[in-house]
Amino acid sequence: MSDCIFCKIIAGQIPSRKVYEDDDVLAFHDIHPFARVHFMIIPKKHIASLADAGPEDQAILGKILLLAPKLAQEQGLEGGFKTLVNTGRGGGQEVFHLHVHVFGGGPAA
Ligand code: AMP
Ligand code: ZN
């Protein structure tokens, strides 16, 4: 997936403001935040979209969702947050590497 911008971020070839990383996932701040706090959680495995995930991806999808409240709290969203997964062109997806947006805290500055 040499032309995937998020794979390049995972590989360290494109810089990002990292929120969290382990063997399976990476979380980093969105470059164009639409809220005061806005980051994305992505699998390190290249999965193009939610529609391209299969049964073998069940564990990583669960891990990402379970990480969302933990990381949101660490980023100052104690009162709650929103999640968003754009899927496919018709769903407004622009980067075809599965990502869960986590955001909140009011409008971006
Ligand atoms: P989506 O419409 O769900 O595919 O959103 C893709 C998101 O990726 C957008 O909110 C972009 O601002 C964000 N984005 C694109 N390139 C980068 C980058 N290099 N670093 C951080 N976020 C990015
Ligand atoms: Zn990728």
Q: What does this entry look like structurally?
A:
- The chain is globular.
- The chain is 21% helix and 22% strand.
- With 109 residues, the protein is an alpha+beta fold.
- It has one domain (5-104): HIT family, subunit A, CATH 3.30.428.10.
- Adenosine monophosphate binds at residues 5, 14, 16, 30-32, 86, 92-95.
Strand and helix map with partners:
Layout: H1 5-10, E1 18-21, E2 25-29, E3 37-43, H2 58-74, E4 82-84, E5 100-104
Antiparallel strand pairs: 1-2, 2-3, 3-5, 4-5
Bound molecules: adenosine monophosphate (AMP) and zinc ion.
Q: Could you tell me the mean pLDDT?
A: 97
CATH fold topology: HIT family, subunit A
Distance between the termini: 34 Å
Number of strands: 5
* Helix run count: 2
C-alpha-based Rg, rounded: 13 Å
Any idea what the CATH architecture is? Answer: 2-Layer Sandwich
Query: Mind describing the biggest β-sheet?
Result: 5 strands, antiparallel
Strand fraction equals 15-25%
